[in-house]
Write a sequence for this structure.
């Protein structure tokens, strides 16, 4: 009986790692434009401040489905010279670029919500395989460097995109428009973003080759995977879990419905999204139970099966991700209205003060992304000195304190200090969890597990869209600045949870 010799995965040069990562410049360019300007667009088109979060919700709901599906598909794809992950980079780039062209020309609020959904879904198609790409191409010893390189390009892309409306305004482009019309500074920025996105992705696709299935097998990455679908969860387990989730979700939906019928102050309708999501998850488990009983083998059932066998490190990192990203979404959704209200004393989206603050928020977002790009070089050094979990803890505490300081700094220029803390946290969030995670994942399921891991980015986004409006209006009396402070507290909770993770 012969035993195949595993070959070591070759180390790549710094230039090769950079080529792999340039595409993330385009992805984050689009995210930067989205995060800094979409709430402003919604308010320009007539959205009330407490309704902004729900308008973001279709995008993460789609991502919840798309990410594991794209991950599963990319694990099993090989299109000759185009490779395994790169076809998804290109597909996502095409649709995202089209969405960026169309988005700033919309005339109605519902159209803006639809375009956000298309844009976010398309970005996810490109982005999800990029994380698995690092796991595919780099040996363990270079993965922290690979994710740090992605953090660097994410930071640079976000700096430029966040500042773009402000830069165009200084060049004489109109930053104020009639009510219901998106300013030219935002519209032109999105068009530039569409071009940048496509060219950045094309650069990575054209300058990077992927290892063939035969090469991956020689590295030992696929030797235990025959290509057949192996379902380990019995149908009875799917059914019992499905019944619990379905009954609990349906009971919560019913309780919410009957409470709102009789209450003087009904709870926000957005809560139906959360309770309905629990019900749907239970229903999906029941469908998986039926398919497993029929001995069916398909991608849906395999993904549902993989959910039952998450590595322990992944489970611990999931909680860290949850609280980290809940904090980030509170910042992205509410920074413009919060600072306009807290520092400029206005909620009038047509006023010069509001739009000037909107540009300053873009600048602040550029600062934290610039800091993130610089700190990306520091992360591998800190990880070697303190371990990856402790490095992540330090970064998240800095980010949490940065968000909390929004309340205390009355001079808008002092917020640059806040952004230094947020930038360190952001740089680490983009690198450290993935560096720790790839060590714990089976190589032949890198894509699908990366997609499942992104649940813990999407779920807090859904909760943020569902609950932050409630918190802002009911708990904080319409003072959005306290929503930012709550986000800072969430990030510090995430920092404390890193203490549960053992570095390997």
């Amino acid at each position: 009986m012969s035993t195949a010799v595993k070959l070591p995965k070759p180390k790549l040069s710094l230039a090769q790692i950079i080529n792999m990562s340039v595409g993330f410049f385009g992805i984050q360019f689009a995210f930067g434009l989205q995060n800094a300007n979409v709430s402003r667009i919604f308010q320009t088109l007539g959205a009330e401040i407490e309704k902004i979060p729900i308008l973001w919700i279709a995008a993460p709901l789609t991502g919840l489905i798309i990410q594991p599906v794209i991950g599963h598909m990319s694990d099993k794809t090989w299109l000759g010279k185009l490779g395994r992950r790169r076809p998804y980079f290109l597909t996502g780039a095409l649709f995202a670029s089209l969405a960026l062209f169309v988005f700033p020309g919309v005339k109605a609020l519902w159209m803006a919500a639809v375009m956000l959904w298309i844009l976010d879904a398309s970005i996810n198609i490109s982005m999800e395989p990029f994380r698995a790409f690092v796991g595919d191409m780099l040996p363990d010893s270079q993965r922290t460097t690979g994710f740090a390189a992605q953090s660097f390009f994410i930071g640079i892309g976000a700096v430029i995109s966040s500042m773009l409306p402000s830069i165009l305004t200084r060049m004489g482009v109109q930053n104020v428009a009639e009510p219901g019309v998106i300013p030219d500074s935002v519209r032109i920025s999105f068009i530039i973003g569409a071009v940048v996105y496509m060219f950045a992705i094309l650069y990575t696709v054209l300058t990077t080759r992927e290892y063939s299935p035969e090469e991956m097998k020689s590295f030992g990455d696929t030797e235990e995977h025959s290509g057949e679908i192996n379902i380990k969860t019995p149908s009875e387990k799917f059914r019992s879990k499905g019944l619990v989730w379905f009954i609990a979700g349906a009971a919560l939906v019913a309780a919410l419905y009957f409470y709102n019928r009789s209450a003087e102050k009904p709870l926000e309708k957005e809560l139906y999204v959360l309770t309905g999501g629990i019900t749907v998850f239970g229903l999906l488990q029941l469908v998986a139970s039926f398919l497993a009983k029929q001995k069916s083998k398909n991608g849906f059932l395999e993904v549902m099966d993989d959910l039952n066998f998450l590595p322990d490190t992944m489970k611990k990192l999931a909680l860290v991700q949850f609280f980290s990203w809940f904090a980030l979404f509170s910042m992205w959704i509410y920074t413009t209205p919060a600072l306009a209200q807290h520092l400029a004393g206005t909620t009038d989206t047509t006023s010069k003060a509001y739009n000037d603050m909107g540009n300053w928020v873009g600048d602040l977002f550029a600062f934290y992304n610039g800091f993130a790009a610089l700190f990306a070089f520091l992360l591998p050094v800190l990880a070697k000195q303190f371990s990856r979990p402790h490095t992540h803890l330090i970064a998240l505490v800095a980010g949490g304190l940065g968000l909390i300081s929004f309340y205390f700094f009355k001079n808008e220029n002092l917020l640059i200090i806040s952004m230094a803390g947020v930038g360190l946290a952001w740089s680490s969030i983009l690198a450290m969890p993935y560096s720790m995670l790839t060590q714990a994942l089976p190589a032949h399921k890198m894509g699908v597990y990366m997609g499942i891991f992104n649940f813990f980015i999407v779920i807090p986004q859904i909760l943020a869209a569902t609950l932050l409006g409630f918190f802002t209006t009911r708990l904080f009396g319409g003072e959005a600045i306290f929503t930012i402070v709550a986000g800072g507290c969430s990030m510090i909770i995430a920092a404390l949870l890193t203490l549960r993770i053992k570095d390997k």
Remarks:
- Residues 235-305 form one domain.
- Residues 14-44 form the longest helix (31 residues).
- The mean pLDDT is 85.
